[in-house]
Specification:
By secondary structure, the chain is an alpha+beta fold. Helix content is about 60%, strand content about 20%. The chain is built from four helices and three strands; from the N terminus they run E-H-H-E-E-H-H.
């Protein structure tokens, strides 16, 4: 569901409680452009957990495929510094 920033401004955050009981997410539209998404905290935690699970799976796949390198902290800092 999309709501305007003006609605949030006039009705306050209590608007979120009512709407999030009916919709999974709210998109806040500012001057005709979608700018923000509001989620229930449980939905946010679920999405965040899924994001972390995916990162773990991708990391394990990289290790399995040999897509990594071993280096000392000093070597790593030197590499990062040279990229700046």
């Amino acid at each position: 569901m999309t709501i305007s920033a003006n609605e949030v401004k006039t009705k306050g955050v209590s608007l979120f409680t009512d709407l999030l009981s009916k919709f999974d997410e709210l998109v806040i539209n500012v001057r005709g452009k979608n700018k923000f998404v509001v989620l229930d905290i449980d939905r946010y935690k679920e999405l965040r957990a899924n994001e972390l699970d995916l990162a773990y799976i991708q990391t394990m796949q990289d290790i399995k495929n040999g897509n990594y390198k071993s280096q000392t902290a000093k070597e790593h800092i030197a590499e990062l510094t040279s990229e700046l």
